Each structure stands twice: as structure tokens, then as C-alpha cells.
Structure prediction request, 241 residues.
Amino acid sequence: SSSSGGGAGGSQGGPELPDSLATAESALRGFGQSLGRVVTYRALALDDKGLADILEADCIFPSGQLHVDADELVAIVEREGVRRVCVARLFIAHLQCLLGHDPSVSLHDDWQTTSIIASAYAEGDHRPVYLFEVSCPVVESMGWTLQEVALQAGAVLGGASSRHPPWFCFTAPATPDGVWFDGRKQRTERYCLYGVPFLRDRLCRLFVFPPSAGVSVADVVAPFARRQAELYTAFTQEQDS
Prediction:
């Protein structure tokens, strides 16, 4: 059928859109509000200057911003695309070659996950691990799970994309025997571009594991590691049945 009067808002087209739906910006804002917020975590091994820099910037910024400015990180994303950024972050040994600098950060809905990862960076020089509990809009997450990113690796790294097991074991100083994670769950790891801005408004709580406190990251994550092992065992038993 033919149409006259153009699109919505035209003199003879469909009904006019309300002002609240008239722009891409307001549509994105409405979509973000419909998704809501999530309380999630980021742990970092920091010296005094590192912590002060984050608080002064009011942002947990990507590691790439330690080397180049924010405009260059935006240019990397525009040039390389979101999929390449995600694959580079997951297969981090290729990140330098694929991107040069990392414009992304990871957030984890289980505080133990990010604390385990941070323990690897705290061990050498005995820096304290700071755990940031933040409330962030879900829309700022890229939306892919680790499993979904892994299945796209072939298109970026070359070769055919193979099936990756959904569960994987990660070792760190806090979990030398490894801890199991389910790559199908968004809570395991959320990828975000450009960091966590508006930190003063979003920060719920800030914890610290100082090396001299007598309570290590390994101590507090041990129950979580045991629970993850139980979930992984249940998964393998279900696969075998």
C-alpha cells in the first residue's frame, strides 16, 4: 500500500509521538530505566596514589587510560568495534595486538569473583585490595556473557569458532587450587566501556583488605570457592546423566 504524509508526526501519517519519545536520547533513557540498576563490584589492588586518583577522577577508569586519554579510548572503540574489544578482554594475551590499549572494565555481581582476580595484582608488592560496591544502570553493561564472547572469538582471532565449555576454572593467589565459574551467567562478569563514572553517586560501600589486617582475601572467599565447586559438580553430573 502507498503512504502519504511521511512518517510519524506528518500531516497525514500515523499519530504524533509524545515528546518523551521524540528523540533517540530519550528513547535510550527510557530503555535504560526499564532495565533498572544492578549492585555489582570491582576490586583493585591500589597504592595510596592509585586510590586518590580514582576518587579525584570520580571514576573507575579502564587500565588503558593510564597510558592514553579518554578520547583515544573512544577512538579505539569506534575503530575496532565492541565485539573486538570484548574478545580482546577475554583473551587478554591478545589485547595489545588487537587494541593497543584497553577501553573497558569488568564488573562482577559476586564480590568474591573480583576480589579473587585482584589478589593476583596485590601479591607482588603487598598492596591492599579495595573492593568497590557500586549501583550501576544495567544498560551500561555490554550484555554478552563470557560464553557468548568466547563463541565469537573465531571471527576476531581467526579460525573457526569452537564450542567452549560453559564452566571454567580460574586460579589466583587467593584460590591456588582454582575456583569454578559459569560463563553463561551475566553475574560472573559484566563488560562495560570507558569505566564506571559518577563514582561518588554510585558508590554504595568501599571495603579494604590491608595486608597487615590478618584476614586475607583467601580467607573470605573460601566458602564461595567451595560453593562454586558444588555447583560445577552438579553441572557435570547433570551432563553425564
